[in-house]
Amino acid sequence: MSHFSVSFSRLGAARVLALSGDLDAHTAPEFEAALAACLAEGGAQIVADGSGLTYVSSAGLGVFMAMLEPARAAGGDIVIAALPERVFETFDLLGFPEVFRFAPSAAEAAALFGDISAGETAAAGAPAAGEAP
Amino acid sequence: MRRAAQAAVATAGRRAAAWTGVAVGFAAVGAARSAYVLAGLAPTVATSAGLDAVAVALVVLAYAVASRGEAARPEAAQADAAAPGRGGAWPVRSLARVLAAAGLLALAEGAAAAASGSVGGGVVRGLTAAASGLTLGVAEAAFAVALALGLRPLVLFRRGRWTVGLWRAALGATVVSALAWAGSRIDVAPSGPAVAFDAAAIMFGLALVLRQRWVALLSGRERLAAAGLVFALFAALVGLLALRTAGAGGLSVAGGPERIPASYVLSRSVGGLASLAMGLGAMYSLTAGLVLLFGLPAAEPARAGERRAFQALAGFAGSVLDRAALVQAIAHGPVEAGLADAAWVVLSDLDHGDLTARVAAAEGLTVDAATAAADSDALARAAGATPLVLGRAEADHRVHARPGSGLGSLVVLPLAARGEAPRGALLAARRTPDAYEADDVAALDAFAAQAALALANADLVAGALDRERLARELALAREVQMRLFPQSLPCLPGLDIAADERPAREIGGDYYDAITLSETCAGVIVADVSGKGTAAAFHMAELKGIFGVGARLTRSPTEFLCRASEALGPSLRVGTFVSAAYAVVDAADGTLAVARAGHCPPVLARDPALADGGARLLRGRGVALGLGSPSLFRRTLDEQTVTLAPGDAVLFYTDGLVEARDAAGEEWGYTRLLAAAERHRALPARAVLDALLAEHRAWSATPDAPADDVTVVVLKWKDGLTGSAPGGSSASHRA
After folding, report:
1. With an 8 Å Cβ cutoff, is B103 touching chain A?
2. B530 HSE (CA, 13 A, CB side)
3. What does the pLDDT look like over B683-724, one tens digit per residue?
4. Are A123 and A91 in contact (CB under 8 A)?
5. Residue B506 contacts by C-beta under 8 Å, 6 or more apart in sequence?
6. Measured between CA atoms, how close is A81 to chain B, in angstroms?
7. Which of A54, A118, A116, A64 lies closest to A89 in space, CA to CA?
8. Which of B530, B636, B655 has the CB atom closest to A59's CB atom?
9. Is the dihedral of CA B24, B25, B26, B27 positive or negative?
């Protein structure tokens, strides 16, 4: 019924996971496995390209939460990019912009990892929060 | 392929050499005998015994080579096994061949008798008698071999260990008896040992005459044909015996009335062997004829066994609740039916992701022994969807059992219910090689199909039971969840509160509560635990405990939520979070303080006629509990304070309300929520709630089974300003 897919690509140092479809309780394990595989391969600088997402449920949000600490512990981060407005609304409602960095596009998200290596993590959330409608 | 071809060529070469040896041997024995006859001398006892022994050895060699030739045609056996429908004809063909051989021999004996009668006396007569005697001797030896080879598949059909043993004993006794004659003069009475071995061979033969299971293979017409053939064979064999001794073909001994077979000229031993073979053959063919004609039950025990096997399985298939007993019954079936000396069942455990088929039950040997005996998984894979028959199991690389360990032949039967991939295999083994005939395999295959169906049913029932148990657990969790909602709501002057909760089919994590904090103040919380099921219900219960104690300690929503975050945080699994909106309202002055921890923003609906009228979202900053560290939570939580105007309605709700979808998949959304809130805000709290939920229901594609819990709390302040309606509160849940 609900369709969901994850595809991998690289953008500079970052791994880009392009998500499309509904990220709900049924499809969240697939996303979690994809993120875990990415981390296991040593790719901790992750861009979640949500331009194809049509819906995200609390289970889907939980996956982002669960994988954020491991990514940061491995010296990377998860940047959420290019969310459609309605999907961003869900993230925003729960306060995700306070915790995650958001970017308007996958390219800009990948560029943020330059900041991380330069040690400028503190202000990263601010521009993303500005995305909120 | 090439190696196999070379081996075949080598085998053919060896066989040709063996046959040449047999022919040369008989020629040499015949030449020696002729020389003595022509010279008019009698050979010494030692010479005669040597010639006899050689002749018997040649017959044994001929039998061995001929039976190897039979065994070297496995593809023929396979073809029969693959087409059980044609399997019935081979006993008839085999009997016809033996009968033809008997006819040829009778012709030869008759011709010899005619020749001996027509020719004159003297040397010529002696020469003729010698020549015909030698020819007949070889012909009888050949016939004895043909007879043994022709009857062997009938006797040994669906062989057991005992049958094979008896067959070998009968052959052995016949050969030994023939050897006991070696060296004796052709015209003397039988010696003691020879008679004893003759008797032994006949005893073994008598034990074998009831081995007539092949009769069960035949259709009605084939039974008639076979009956005709075996009676004809019986008559031919008796006739041959009479023709050789009593008829014109025999030699008279010392001018007396007693006559001996002409073939004794070649070898007394081989002649005796042929007599014994003919006698045994006559016994067997007579019994076969009687079995065929009168339907004697010689062929029945196996059928009865098959019935028992199926009955045993049917009994267990009824009690599908005990899967282990069912699997054991499947292993037991072939042994019970006499279709195997040992059998075991291998199954792959797909539920636990284990594709390798492992021994689940064994009969006639232990599970460990069955596991060690063969790579059953590889055999099951090799079998695929059709039975795999290994006539010489110990020669197969997948069978680890040593020769002589009781794994002579093996049948691997896939356990596949109709239209499904095999879930395992049933392996049936017999101690003797080549012990499985086509109809055995067909019976086993039918049994395995039935067994697979029973297994599939058992799995279905087990699945249904699992679902039922899950449903019971969910019902229990639902009951617990319903008790977590408040049984009554605060009742303060000027404050009108209504709440409703519509559960989804799955247990969600919605929670709401309202509590009286002082004479004028009340606290209202709406929360949503991420995820569903019993874990969510557990966190709800935890939250209720925290709320019941913590809310009374402070009038500050921020303070309460921060403490709740600290208290709840450690027990939340990573990835699980709780969103909550908490408001403290003072019914005396209409002050509403609200903090939103990642929860859906409450709606404030005010009379549009007022300055800041209309419906709007109270959208303060804040992250969900469990989303970040306690310090991040406190830092980001943003408390809003609103001074309510008389008649204001405040809506708290969970995401199930705004995320409900219509048939086209469109969400109800905030725009429709705000519009509905503005439309109905003037009504009392309960009526606002009902109107809202009615609109929401009308939108939802599945109003009776919402995808998510829907929780709404409506708070109205100073509805009674106009004096029309006093404040009151109501809560309701629908389970």
Report:
1. no
2. 30
3. 999 999 999 999 988 888 877 777 778 899 999 988 655 443
4. no
5. B474, B532, B533
6. 19
7. A54
8. B530
9. positive
Element holding B331 (H helix, E strand): helix B323-336
Tokens of B544: 């209720």
Average pLDDT, chain B: 81
Give the separation between CA B514 and CA B729, rounded to whole angstroms: 11
Q: Using alpha carbons only, give the angle B393, B398, B400 rounded to the nearest 5 degrees.
A: 75
CA-CA distance, B659 to A56, in Å (whole number)?
Answer: 11
Residue of B nearest to A70 (CA): B574
Substitution target in A94, A96, A99, A101 with the highest count of B β-carbons within 10 Å is A94
Residue B419 CB burial class (10 angstroms; 0-12, 13-18, ≥19): exposed
* CA B473 remoteness from chain centre: 33
pLDDT of residue B725: 41
3-state SS class at B730 = strand
Q: Which of B183, B350, B182, B173 is nearest to B279 (CA)?
A: B173
Closest Cβ opposite residue A99 in set B530, B576, B632: B632
Reading the block at residue B507, the tokens are 């247990």
Assembly ipTM: 0.74
Residue-wise pLDDT tens digits, B189-218: 666 777 888 888 888 888 888 888 787 777
Element (H, E) at B263: none
Four-residue CA torsion sign, B231, B233, B236, B240: negative
Residue B720: per-residue pLDDT: 55
- What token pair was written down for B520? 């004028």
Both tokens assigned to B704: 């009776």
Q: Residue with structure tokens 């009865």? A: B304
Structure tokens at A34: 């994809």
Mean pLDDT, range A61-87, rounded to an integer: 89
Condensed to tens digits (0 to 9), the pLDDT of residues B409-421 reads 999 999 887 777 7
| CA dihedral sign of residues A63, A65, A67, A71 | positive
| φ and ψ of B510, to 5 deg | -75, 145
The alpha carbon dihedral of B113, B115, B118, B121 has a sign of negative
